[in-house]
Design goal:
Layout (H helix, E strand, L loop, with lengths): L2 H16 L4 H20 L10 H27 L5 H32 L6 H19 L7 H22 L5 H16 L4 H20 L8 H20 L3 H5 L3
Helix pairs in contact: 1-2, 2-3, 3-4, 3-5, 4-5, 5-6, 5-7, 6-7, 7-8, 7-9, 8-9
Family: Belongs to the 14-3-3 family.
Protein name: 14_3_3 domain-containing protein
InterPro entries: 14-3-3, 14-3-3_dom_sf, 14-3-3_domain
Length: about 250
């Protein structure tokens, strides 16, 4: 088996194995998957359509436990008095460790995308690269509080908008990459930009366009990945309308 084909197989195998393992093995195989992806892309490899979601998934899964732990640490810090010096100091220590690890993963992903993105990449690949880079900036937003937070938020939004523009201009409304970009941009607007109306608008537009295409399809059977994306978008749209927006605000979205 050729070197690039071998790496492509290992990327696929890592994804398959992690589905059946516990938390420790999940982390190990996510780390392996990222390493295989880096090696594959650095050799000039381009992920085939059926495996492109793995680029986003690998870094997301590697960062997810650390992001979840950081969220819990922040909640604990808010509930702990600084007078309890021992506990408070320990929490601050773990907070810094987790933030450093998230920064390392995010910057590793951004560097990989910058190194392998080419002008002649096809539209789906370009859209994916910009979205994955935007996701990494979004993760950085969760662990930065200094003067540069504004620049990181701006970088994330610019990458998401570029990804969305490429996807809407070139990909079908039921394309899984296009739907995934809509989901992640919706998350960005809701939790980073604190803009529920724009988050709702993204979900609403993506579902409207997808429903219009599905209505005209002769084959009504959709790929499982696409079905999952549509369910997520419907959940976000419903939750945002119920928890963040009045009925009048939601009805004003085209």
């Amino acid at each position: 088996m050729a070197a690039k084909e071998d790496l492509l197989y290992k990327i696929w195998l890592s994804e398959q194995i992690e589905r059946f393992e516990g938390n420790l093995m999940f982390l190990l195989f996510s780390a392996d998957m990222v390493s295989y992806l880096e090696a594959f892309l650095s050799k000039g490899g381009k992920l085939p359509p059926g495996q492109r979601h793995q680029l986003s998934g690998a870094f997301c899964k590697l960062a997810a436990p650390k992001r979840f732990a950081l969220e819990k640490i922040n909640l604990a810090l808010n509930a702990t008095s600084e007078d309890n010096q021992s506990e408070y100091t320990s929490l601050l220590h773990y907070k810094k460790v987790l933030e450093d690890e998230i920064r390392q993963i995010s910057n590793r992903c951004i560097k990989l995308i910058d190194d392998c993105m080419k002008d002649d990449d096809e539209a789906e690949l370009k859209a994916l690269y910009h979205c994955v880079k935007a996701d990494s900036f979004r993760y950085l937003c969760e662990c930065e509080t200094g003067d540069n937070i504004g620049d990181i938020v701006k970088s994330a939004l610019e990458e998401y908008k570029t990804a969305s523009r490429i996807a809407i201009g070139n990909l079908n409304p039921t394309n899984a990459i296009r739907l995934g970009i809509a989901i992640n941009l919706c998350i960005f607007y809701l939790y980073v930009a604190n803009n529920a109306k724009d988050a709702y608008g993204i979900a609403h537009s993506a579902l409207r366009d997808a429903d219009a295409e599905i209505a005209n399809l002769q084959e009504k059977e959709l790929d499982g990945l696409v079905q999952g994306c549509l369910i997520q978008l419907k959940d976000y749209k419903y939750s945002i309308q119920k928890l963040f927006l009045s009925t009048e605000s939601a009805e004003g979205v085209n």
